């Protein structure tokens, strides 16, 4: 009993420290339109206000600590939400079992996704305070927002009320998640398939202002130095990548944004205009389509416009096909169904 009281006291002390700075989700639910669907209309921003008022403070504190200990974790948590959110149901968190194959071994996720242990720690703390109340899917959505905030980016109202899925699909994950070598046509098609617009696509790509990628994911960029039409600045960039990856077994990491790799800002778009997009799919936003190039130019010149569009697109992303009502559950452990 004494141990439980001590743990509760420690928790309350942490809440007191972080409650003043944790991003709030106040106000009404996000309206319809764009990629919103009937399930999305069931989400709201103050779901846990009465049933688990400490939820967002706990998530924020854990995210802040995780990013302090490993700055790369901000990008990892944001990416984890994105890979879950061509469905927003925490299916990506499920571990494989003897009779179940989840999404963690899908090509876009294998040896790539990180941050599962942070979600585990958040869930464990929430289960102590509010047992079986906050879904893993809502934790993912909130942790993604908080990872942006602690890295200097904008905040937004996270829509709550998702349930956790009872299953997962490796095949679906392989098919719907955009890859690093995607052409513009490929990217547009995958985003349109989930009712996200071209502007959403370019704005959400700005998440690559943080994080890292393996040499194997941008191998096609290493061949760009043979292109006589490549801008001079990009040739220097490509040559630096070739040097980095020359002694690599493919696992060497490079920053997606060389200039400000740990800050959420608009430098990603500035880099693209200089021919310094790391992934082929990133650089294609400039070279592959006039409309996407215009958006890149806008965001490179005006960070406030980028922040606003990114917030709007993240809210839309978070409303893609959520499991609600009796179609899902609140998992006790994010890695397995109850």
From TrEMBL:
Localisation per UniProt entry: Secreted
The reaction(s) this protein catalyses: 2 a phenolic donor + H2O2 = 2 a phenolic radical donor + 2 H2O
Positions contributing to heme b binding: 208
Keywords associated with the record: Calcium, Disulfide bond, Glycoprotein, Heme, Hydrogen peroxide, Iron, Metal-binding, Oxidoreductase, Peroxidase, Secreted, Signal
Record: residues binding Ca(2+) 2: 209, 257, 260, 265
Disulfide bond residue pairs: 52-130, 85-88, 136-334, 215-245
Residues in the signal sequence: 1-27
EC number(s) given by UniProt: 1.11.1.7
Site note Transition state stabilizer, residues: 79
SUPFAM superfamilies on file: Heme-dependent peroxidases
Highest taxon of source: Eukaryota
Named cofactor requirement(s): heme b; Ca(2+)
UniProt-listed InterPro entries: Haem_peroxidase, Haem_peroxidase_sf, Peroxidase_pln, Peroxidases_AS, Peroxidases_heam-ligand_BS, Secretory_peroxidase
GO MF term list: heme binding; lactoperoxidase activity; metal ion binding
Similarity comment: family membership: Belongs to the peroxidase family. Classical plant (class III) peroxidase subfamily.
PANTHER family in alphabetical order: PEROXIDASE 40 (PTHR31388:SF28), PEROXIDASE 72-RELATED (PTHR31388)
Protein name, entry field: Peroxidase
Species: Prunus armeniaca (Apricot)
